[in-house]
Amino acid sequence: MEFGELREAIEKMELVDGHAHNIVSVDTTFPFINSFSEATGDALSFTPHSLSFKRNLREISELYGSESSLDAVEEYRRLSGLQAISLKCFKAAGISAVLIDDGLKLDEMHDIEWHRSLVPFAGRILRIERLAEQILDGLHIKVVLDINPNVTTKMLKKVFLKFYVVYLDFGLAVPKLSVHGMISLVKEFLEVAPINKVMISTDGYAVLETYYLGAKKACGVIFSVLCDACIDGDLHVAEATEAAKGIFGRNAIEFYKINAGLKFSDLKASSTPCFDVENAVDTGASFVRSIWVDAPGQYRYRVRFLFLSINKL
Q1: pLDDT given at position 140
Q2: Is residue 98 within a helix (H) or strand (E), and if so which, with residue range?
């Protein structure tokens, strides 16, 4: 089975980054090595020995034409300046639109407006966890809100079944896992998730290279997963191409109501003004993030606010 057309289509697709965070200035105290891992303290010293670090460092070095070492890459960044590497990374990533969650507070981070100089479209999305923490801070959950702090599997299953408006993005795991880990994870997503509810995100944060790596590896991973789906008989090549269009941009455009009159294929060259997604048309949908996979591949749950959602159903 030939997949040349599918590969070419994916390589030419503009990417709508459905979830990312702010870039920081050159004066930040954020260590560059933290862009490769979320480890902290003594654990950070083991980061260079991970498969993802070795691969990601090599790919950044190839982009910059520098030696494949952390010191060489950092020296290139220092000499080139933030604006130059910003343009290089975003151009190589093929990102045409980005939705920024500015609820993750970083030292010396740039505001949304700064990011709009890099892409045709930059919008803002609300970090609901942080807002909920601010609202609930200081409150006695059980007495004031009458919320049962105990949760059972049966209750969780009931809630998940009702959330038909839940969508999925798979940022951070791509590119922070090994190649096999990334492919396996995305395959698991597509085993149960409707294709039109799956969205790509880089989950880029702090430094431009996280955006680049997230986009680059997403292309390779999605291509591999869709090829296997065709070989297994789940999809025809034409269906795989349509699936890729949805995952890389169309699903996010439709979900966030990004300029409803704008065609996906026109995004890269568009000069349409940016707007905050918080001002988009209210369709009654709620983006609830209740489970995710962290950098080491551990499943994480945020149950604390789940009962707030139950009470609203």
Answers
A1: 53
A2: strand 95-101
- Say if 267 falls within a structural domain: no
Mean pLDDT of the chain: 82
Look at the chain and report how many structural domains it folds into: 1
Structure token digits, residue 293? 């996979």
Return the minimum-mean-pLDDT range out of 117-131, 142-156, 200-214, 271-285: 271-285
Q: What is the CATH number of the domain that holds 42?
A: 3.20.20.140
Q: The domain containing residue 41 runs over which residues?
A: 4-260+282-312
Asked if residue 142 is part of any domain, the answer here is yes
Does 276 fall in a domain? no
Q: Which comes out higher in pLDDT, residue 274 or 143?
A: 143
Q: How far apart are CA 81 and CA 106, in angstroms?
A: 19
198 assigned to some structural domain: yes
CA distances 33 to 36, 43, 53, 152, Å, are 6, 12, 9, 39
Per-residue pLDDT band for 271 (boundaries 50, 70, 90) equals: very low
Q: Which residues of 251-285 are buried (b: 16+ CB within 10 A; e: fewer)?
A: bbbebbebbeeeebeebbebeeebeebeebeeeee
